[in-house]
Design a protein that fits this description.
With 313 residues, this protein is an alpha/beta fold. Helix content is 36%, strand content 19%. The protein binds zinc ion.
């Protein structure tokens, strides 16, 4: 894999440009040439995770999810992101439910789109209070912190941050009862003729687990999984990004089935024998800022690698 060379080639011209021109351009253009590159702040993302949990259980169609969505929208706008809503009605086993994907489109120097996505709903449970610190809040928090960085700087690629509603089954997981938001978006983008713009999708899900171990999902696109896992290894995170196979059904599947290259970064090994997953124990106490930061660093560096990859012209 080629190292990210696009930055060096741009930096090369800097000495020829008068300093004043650089300073004048810094404010309006995002200023990545002169300002130090912002870094992913795991503590800030963890604060977002806690804030989302404080809204309580957040199943699709609930008032708590609506409040969480409004709060996330405000956070994104404070970061300089332009937020689009993608409301739709989903046919579920308990009747029609209103759902709404949030989409941030960050214009880049090139039209090729790299999408980073995750879900923000939590699974509906009647018997206990399920707050989904890891399963639902961690992915949304990760995207909020990525927005603070990516919306404030000039990026070579166009980047879309997508917050999916309705990832979880309303009752029991099945092709018809799951992945409502991603299935809806693939349908909509292909109708609009925009799906082909997406050259790579990085999906994050359950990446807040304090004992982070992400395995290689066999349903993901091999070249993209290689790129991300290779970057993780390069950064010294081979223990957290393990070369062990698994096969996961998640929001990337509708995209993969529609021909979009996608990789799912998911840690479905949550607590002893996965005991915390979909349980009352999916709490803030079992998540960590460090796990969010590790995934954030790997995703940001993977976006740089994608910008240098010929598959994203
Ligand atoms: Zn779940």
């Amino acid at each position: 894999m080629k190292p990210p060379k696009e930055v060096t080639s741009r930096v090369r011209v800097l000495p020829m440009i008068p300093l004043l021109v650089l300073l004048a351009g810094a404010g309006s253009a995002g200023g990545w040439r002169s300002a130090p590159a912002p870094v992913f702040d795991g503590n800030r993302a963890f604060a977002d995770l806690k804030r989302l949990v404080a809204f309580g259980p957040r199943p699709s169609g609930s008032q708590a999810l609506e409040q969480a969505r409004a709060w996330m929208r405000g956070e994104l706008e404070r970061s300089g992101c332009r937020v689009e809503e993608d409301p739709f009605r989903a046919e579920t086993p308990i009747g029609e439910l209103p759902m709404d994907n949030l989409i941030v489109k960050i214009p880049g120097e090139r039209p090729a789109v790299a999408m980073v996505a995750g879900h923000y709903d939590t699974k509906r449970f009647d018997g206990y209070r399920f707050v989904g610190a890891n399963d639902g809040a961690s992915s949304a928090a990760e995207l909020l912190e990525l927005g603070r960085i990516l919306c404030r700087r000039q990026n070579p690629l166009t980047i879309w941050l997508v917050f999916f509603d309705g990832e979880e089954a309303v009752r029991e997981w099945s092709p018809a009862d799951s992945l409502y938001g991603s299935r809806h978006l693939v349908r909509k983008l292909s109708e609009d003729g925009e799906l082909a713009r997406i050259k790579a999708m990085i999906l994050v899900d359950m990446i807040g687990d304090a004992q982070l171990d992400i395995r290689r999902d066999q349903n993901s696109t091999p070249w993209l999984a290689n790129l991300v896992f290779g970057e993780a290894r390069r950064q010294g995170y081979a223990r957290q990004f393990r070369d062990e196979p698994t096969a996961i059904d998640d929001d990337h599947i509708p995209f993969v089935n529609a021909g979009v290259s996608a990789v799912d970064l998911i840690d479905l090994d949550y607590g002893p024998a996965n005991r915390y997953w979909h349980s009352a124990e999916d709490t803030v106490a079992h998540c960590s800022p460090r796990s969010l930061a590790i995934v954030g660093r790997v995703v940001l560096a993977s976006l740089d690698r994608l910008a240098a990859d010929p598959r994203l012209p």
